[in-house]
Protein backbone atom coordinates (compact mmCIF):
# COMPACT_ATOMS: atom_id res chain seq x y z
CA UNK A 1 0.00 0.00 0.00
CA UNK A 2 2.61 2.56 -1.04
CA UNK A 3 1.34 6.02 -1.94
CA UNK A 4 1.08 6.91 -5.62
CA UNK A 5 3.78 9.31 -6.81
CA UNK A 6 2.80 12.88 -7.60
CA UNK A 7 4.96 15.99 -8.02
CA UNK A 8 5.00 17.99 -4.79
CA UNK A 9 4.15 21.18 -6.61
CA UNK A 10 3.25 22.60 -10.00
CA UNK A 11 2.57 26.15 -11.08
CA UNK A 12 1.17 28.05 -14.01
CA UNK A 13 -0.06 31.44 -15.07
CA UNK A 14 -3.71 32.29 -15.58
CA UNK A 15 -4.97 30.99 -18.90
CA UNK A 16 -2.25 28.38 -19.22
CA UNK A 17 -2.67 24.61 -18.99
CA UNK A 18 -0.94 22.40 -16.45
CA UNK A 19 -0.72 18.64 -16.03
CA UNK A 20 -0.29 16.73 -12.79
CA UNK A 21 1.05 13.19 -13.08
CA UNK A 22 0.25 10.28 -10.81
CA UNK A 23 2.44 7.20 -11.07
CA UNK A 24 1.51 3.89 -9.55
CA UNK A 25 2.25 0.27 -10.30
CA UNK A 26 0.80 -2.63 -12.24
CA UNK A 27 -1.12 -3.53 -9.06
CA UNK A 28 -3.12 -0.32 -8.96
CA UNK A 29 -3.12 2.38 -11.66
CA UNK A 30 -1.91 -0.03 -14.33
CA UNK A 31 -4.49 -2.72 -13.57
CA UNK A 32 -7.68 -0.71 -13.32
CA UNK A 33 -9.26 2.25 -15.06
CA UNK A 34 -10.42 3.42 -11.65
CA UNK A 35 -8.38 6.53 -10.96
CA UNK A 36 -10.07 9.51 -9.33
CA UNK A 37 -8.84 13.02 -8.63
CA UNK A 38 -9.72 15.31 -5.73
CA UNK A 39 -9.31 19.03 -5.17
CA UNK A 40 -8.77 20.25 -1.61
CA UNK A 41 -8.62 23.78 -0.28
CA UNK A 42 -6.89 24.40 3.09
CA UNK A 43 -9.08 23.36 5.98
CA UNK A 44 -11.76 21.92 3.71
CA UNK A 45 -12.87 18.45 2.73
CA UNK A 46 -11.71 17.02 -0.61
CA UNK A 47 -13.95 17.41 -3.63
CA UNK A 48 -14.27 14.85 -6.44
CA UNK A 49 -13.08 16.30 -9.77
CA UNK A 50 -12.51 13.24 -11.99
CA UNK A 51 -13.59 9.61 -11.65
CA UNK A 52 -13.02 6.42 -13.60
CA UNK A 53 -9.97 8.02 -15.15
CA UNK A 54 -11.60 10.67 -17.28
CA UNK A 55 -15.21 11.30 -16.25
CA UNK A 56 -16.33 14.58 -14.70
CA UNK A 57 -19.06 14.77 -12.07
CA UNK A 58 -21.92 17.12 -12.72
CA UNK A 59 -20.90 20.68 -11.88
CA UNK A 60 -17.17 20.25 -12.44
CA UNK A 61 -15.75 22.54 -15.10
CA UNK A 62 -14.79 20.99 -18.44
CA UNK A 63 -11.41 22.67 -17.97
CA UNK A 64 -10.55 19.61 -15.88
CA UNK A 65 -9.72 16.41 -17.75
CA UNK A 66 -8.12 13.09 -16.90
CA UNK A 67 -6.23 10.42 -18.78
CA UNK A 68 -4.10 7.35 -18.22
CA UNK A 69 -1.22 5.60 -19.93
CA UNK A 70 0.22 2.45 -18.44
CA UNK A 71 0.95 2.96 -14.76
CA UNK A 72 0.60 6.75 -14.93
CA UNK A 73 -2.57 8.81 -14.72
CA UNK A 74 -2.73 12.53 -15.41
CA UNK A 75 -4.94 15.46 -14.52
CA UNK A 76 -4.92 18.41 -16.90
CA UNK A 77 -6.36 21.79 -16.03
CA UNK A 78 -6.73 24.12 -18.98
CA UNK A 79 -7.43 27.85 -18.91
CA UNK A 80 -5.95 28.10 -15.42
CA UNK A 81 -7.83 30.36 -13.02
CA UNK A 82 -6.92 31.78 -9.62
CA UNK A 83 -9.63 29.65 -8.00
CA UNK A 84 -7.85 26.48 -9.18
CA UNK A 85 -5.06 27.09 -6.66
CA UNK A 86 -5.42 24.14 -4.27
CA UNK A 87 -4.01 20.73 -3.43
CA UNK A 88 -4.81 17.88 -5.81
CA UNK A 89 -4.79 14.18 -4.96
CA UNK A 90 -5.04 11.18 -7.22
CA UNK A 91 -6.50 7.91 -5.99
CA UNK A 92 -6.54 4.44 -7.51
CA UNK A 93 -8.35 1.21 -6.77
CA UNK A 94 -5.80 -1.33 -5.59
CA UNK A 95 -7.85 -4.50 -5.33
CA UNK A 96 -9.80 -6.14 -2.49
CA UNK A 97 -11.95 -3.04 -1.90
CA UNK A 98 -8.88 -0.95 -1.05
CA UNK A 99 -7.67 2.28 -2.61
CA UNK A 100 -4.39 4.17 -2.47
CA UNK A 101 -3.93 7.94 -2.65
CA UNK A 102 -1.13 9.98 -4.10
CA UNK A 103 0.94 12.19 -1.81
CA UNK A 104 -0.69 15.28 -3.23
CA UNK A 105 0.34 18.17 -5.48
CA UNK A 106 0.14 21.83 -4.53
CA UNK A 107 -0.98 23.91 -7.51
CA UNK A 108 0.10 27.55 -7.48
CA UNK A 109 -1.45 30.00 -9.92
CA UNK A 110 1.16 32.68 -10.54
CA UNK B 1 -28.86 16.91 -0.41
CA UNK B 2 -26.27 14.38 0.69
CA UNK B 3 -24.86 15.21 4.10
CA UNK B 4 -22.19 13.41 6.11
CA UNK B 5 -21.44 14.71 9.60
CA UNK B 6 -18.61 13.24 11.66
CA UNK B 7 -18.36 13.48 15.42
CA UNK B 8 -16.45 11.97 18.30
CA UNK B 9 -13.01 13.42 17.75
CA UNK B 10 -10.92 14.97 20.49
CA UNK B 11 -7.79 14.67 22.58
CA UNK B 12 -6.82 11.19 23.77
CA UNK B 13 -3.71 9.81 25.43
CA UNK B 14 -1.44 7.30 23.69
CA UNK B 15 -2.82 3.82 24.16
CA UNK B 16 -6.34 5.14 24.57
CA UNK B 17 -9.51 4.53 22.60
CA UNK B 18 -12.02 6.65 20.75
CA UNK B 19 -15.11 5.97 18.66
CA UNK B 20 -15.94 8.19 15.73
CA UNK B 21 -19.42 8.45 14.25
CA UNK B 22 -20.64 9.65 10.88
CA UNK B 23 -24.32 10.55 10.47
CA UNK B 24 -25.54 10.20 6.90
CA UNK B 25 -28.58 11.77 5.27
CA UNK B 26 -29.91 12.65 1.83
CA UNK B 27 -29.36 9.22 0.28
CA UNK B 28 -30.27 5.60 0.90
CA UNK B 29 -27.43 4.82 3.28
CA UNK B 30 -27.95 1.05 3.28
CA UNK B 31 -27.25 0.82 -0.46
CA UNK B 32 -23.76 2.28 -0.42
CA UNK B 33 -20.31 1.25 0.66
CA UNK B 34 -18.60 3.65 3.05
CA UNK B 35 -15.03 4.48 3.94
CA UNK B 36 -12.88 6.38 6.40
CA UNK B 37 -10.01 8.50 5.11
CA UNK B 38 -7.64 10.45 7.33
CA UNK B 39 -5.24 13.34 6.90
CA UNK B 40 -2.42 14.04 9.34
CA UNK B 41 -1.59 17.72 9.89
CA UNK B 42 0.13 19.11 6.81
CA UNK B 43 0.11 15.70 5.13
CA UNK B 44 -1.79 13.93 2.38
CA UNK B 45 -4.90 11.79 2.35
CA UNK B 46 -4.69 8.22 3.59
CA UNK B 47 -7.42 5.63 3.07
CA UNK B 48 -7.88 3.56 6.22
CA UNK B 49 -11.14 1.59 6.20
CA UNK B 50 -13.88 0.19 3.95
CA UNK B 51 -17.23 -1.38 4.76
CA UNK B 52 -19.72 -2.97 2.39
CA UNK B 53 -23.31 -1.76 2.16
CA UNK B 54 -24.58 -4.59 4.35
CA UNK B 55 -21.73 -4.31 6.82
CA UNK B 56 -20.66 -7.90 6.22
CA UNK B 57 -17.30 -7.07 4.63
CA UNK B 58 -14.61 -4.79 6.04
CA UNK B 59 -11.08 -3.95 5.06
CA UNK B 60 -8.47 -1.85 6.82
CA UNK B 61 -5.13 -0.38 5.82
CA UNK B 62 -2.07 -2.09 7.26
CA UNK B 63 -1.34 1.02 9.33
CA UNK B 64 -4.49 0.49 11.44
CA UNK B 65 -5.19 -3.23 11.04
CA UNK B 66 -5.83 -4.90 14.36
CA UNK B 67 -6.36 -1.56 16.14
CA UNK B 68 -9.24 0.09 14.25
CA UNK B 69 -12.61 -1.39 13.37
CA UNK B 70 -15.24 0.00 10.99
CA UNK B 71 -18.93 -0.77 11.44
CA UNK B 72 -22.33 0.62 10.50
CA UNK B 73 -25.94 0.78 11.66
CA UNK B 74 -28.12 0.91 8.56
CA UNK B 75 -31.29 1.34 10.62
CA UNK B 76 -29.90 4.59 12.05
CA UNK B 77 -27.86 5.74 9.05
CA UNK B 78 -24.66 5.75 11.07
CA UNK B 79 -21.08 4.80 10.27
CA UNK B 80 -18.55 4.15 13.02
CA UNK B 81 -14.81 3.86 13.49
CA UNK B 82 -13.65 2.26 16.73
CA UNK B 83 -10.03 3.23 17.34
CA UNK B 84 -8.01 1.38 19.98
CA UNK B 85 -4.35 1.45 21.03
CA UNK B 86 -4.01 4.94 19.63
CA UNK B 87 -0.57 6.29 18.76
CA UNK B 88 0.82 9.75 18.07
CA UNK B 89 0.90 8.98 14.35
CA UNK B 90 -2.87 8.51 14.41
CA UNK B 91 -3.28 12.25 14.98
CA UNK B 92 -5.28 13.44 11.99
CA UNK B 93 -8.54 14.77 10.65
CA UNK B 94 -10.78 11.79 9.99
CA UNK B 95 -13.25 11.97 7.11
CA UNK B 96 -16.10 9.62 6.31
CA UNK B 97 -16.67 9.27 2.60
CA UNK B 98 -19.51 7.79 0.56
CA UNK B 99 -18.22 5.42 -2.09
CA UNK B 100 -19.50 4.87 -5.59
CA UNK B 101 -19.74 1.49 -7.30
CA UNK B 102 -16.30 2.07 -8.79
CA UNK B 103 -14.22 3.05 -5.79
CA UNK B 104 -14.35 6.80 -5.95
CA UNK B 105 -15.62 9.04 -3.18
CA UNK B 106 -18.39 11.32 -4.35
CA UNK B 107 -19.30 12.84 -0.97
CA UNK B 108 -17.19 13.64 2.07
CA UNK B 109 -17.94 14.83 5.57
CA UNK B 110 -16.33 17.93 7.03
CA UNK B 111 -13.96 15.83 9.13
CA UNK B 112 -13.31 15.43 12.84
CA UNK B 113 -9.92 16.01 14.45
CA UNK B 114 -8.32 13.32 16.58
CA UNK B 115 -5.26 14.33 18.59
CA UNK B 116 -3.24 11.63 20.34
CA UNK B 117 -0.97 13.19 22.93
CA UNK B 118 -0.07 12.97 26.58
Describe the main β-sheet of chain B briefly.
7 strands, mixed
Work out the largest interface and the residue count of each chain.
A-B, 25 and 25 residues
Query: What structural class do helix, strand and pairing data of chain B support?
Result: mainly beta
| Unreliable sequence segments of chain A | none
Count of extended strands of chain B: 11
Q: Catalogue the unreliable spans of chain B.
A: none
Order of helices and strands of chain A: EEEEEEEEE
- Cα(first) to Cα(last) distance of chain B is 40 Å
Describe this structure in words.
The complex is a heterodimer of chains A (110) and B (118). Chain A has strands spanning 9-12, 18-23, 35-40, 47-50, 64-69, 72-77, 86-93, 99-101, 105-109. Chain A is mainly β and 110 residues long. In chain A, strands 1, 3, 4, 7, 8 and 9 form a six-stranded mixed beta sheet that branches. In chain A, strand 3 and strand 4 (47-50) form a beta hairpin. Chain A is globular, with a radius of gyration of 13 Å. The model of chain A has no long low-confidence stretch (mean pLDDT 96). By secondary structure, chain B is an all-beta fold. In chain B, 0% of the residues lie in helices and 52% in strands. Chain B has strands at 3-7, 10-12, 18-25, 34-39, 45-51, 58-60, 68-73, 78-83, 92-99, 105-108, 112-116. In chain B, strands 2, 4, 5, 6, 9, 10 and 11 form a seven-stranded mixed beta sheet that branches. Chain B has a four-stranded antiparallel beta sheet with strand order 1-3-8-7, with no helix packed on it. Chain B starts with a strand and ends with a strand. The chains are: A mainly beta (110), B mainly beta (118). Chain A binds chain B through residues 1, 3, 34, 36, 38, 40, 45-48, 51-52, 57, 89, 91, 93, 96-104, and chain B through 33, 35, 37, 44-47, 50, 52, 57, 59, 61-63, 95, 100, 102-106, 108-111.
Amino acid sequence: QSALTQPASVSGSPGQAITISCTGTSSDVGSYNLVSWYQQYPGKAPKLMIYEGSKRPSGVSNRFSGSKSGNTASLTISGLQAEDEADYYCCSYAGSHTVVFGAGTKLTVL
Amino acid sequence: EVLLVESGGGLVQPGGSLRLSCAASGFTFSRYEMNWVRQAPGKGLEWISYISSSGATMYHADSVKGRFSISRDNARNLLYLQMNSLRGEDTAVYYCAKASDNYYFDYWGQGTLVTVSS
